[in-house]
Amino acid sequence: MQSVEIGLRLAFALAETDGPLALRELAEKSGLPASKAHRYLVSLSRAGIVEQDQRNGHYDLGQGALVLGIAAMGRLDEQRFASETLSDLHQVTNQTAAALVWGTHGATIVLRKESLRPTTVNTRIGSVLSTISSASGRVFAAFLPREIVGPQVDAEFAQGTKPTYLGRALDAEEFWKLIEKTRRVGVARVRGDLLSGVDAVSAPVFDHEGKIVMVLSVWGGHGVLDITPHGNIDRLLTEAAATLSARLGYPGKHVL
After folding, report:
1. Which residues form the domain of 102?
2. Does residue 254 lie in a domain region?
3. Which of 87, 191, 85, 101 is nearest to 143 (CA)?
4. pTM of the complete model
5. Mean pLDDT confidence for 17-46
6. What are the DSSP E strand ranges found in the chain?
C-alpha cells in the first residue's frame, strides 16, 4: 500500500506542474530522495503512467495517465455534483441557494433549494436573471469572454435597465469597472439591486479547463443575509464553489 502511495505522489506531482520535470526537480517536489524516486518512476514508466523523454531525461505523464484522466472525465456528473453541493450549501446557510448556467438569454436557474425563511423571490427553475443587475449575472460577466456576455449586457442597457451598486445607478462604463472588480475579488454581491429588499452573493464554478460553467448563489432578505466581504456567507459560498470546481477537475484556487 505504501508503494502505491509513493507512486501516486510522484504522478500527482507531475499532474500539478505545467510540463516535464527533471528527476531532481520531481524528487524534490515529491519529498523523496532522487534514488528512491527513480526506482518508482521506472515502475510507473512500465505501467505507462509516466514517460521519460530520451533526449533530456525529463519525466512527464504518459499515455496510461491520459487514459485514466479521460475515463474519469467521462464519469463526471456535473448536475449531480452541483445538486449535492447546493444541498450542503443550503443546509449550512439556511438560505435560498441556487445554481445557474449561462443560457441563450443569460444567467438561467437550473437548481434551487428554497429557504424556510420568508423571502419574496419570484424565481423558479428556468428563470433568467438580469446580467447587469443580479449577482449571478455579474459573475458570468466577469468570467465569461466579453464577446459572449457583451451582447446581452448591451441589450439590457438598450432596454433601459439601470443597474445599481449600493443604491447608486451605473452607466455602462461604470458597470464594466464593477465587473473588473468582481473578477479580482472572485464574488459578486448585490443589496437590493435586482429586487428591493433582497440581497445576494454569487461565486463562479470552473471546469477542468478553467472555464466558468456555473454560478452558485445565495440570497435572502435584507438584514438577514450577511453578505459582508469575507463574512460567513462569503466563506461558505466560496468553499462550496471551490469544492464543486475541484470535483469538476479544476486545478486552480478560488480567490477568497
Report:
1. 78-247
2. no
3. 101
4. 0.70
5. 90
6. 50-52, 59-61, 96-103, 106-113, 128-129, 164-165, 168-169, 188-191, 198-206, 212-221
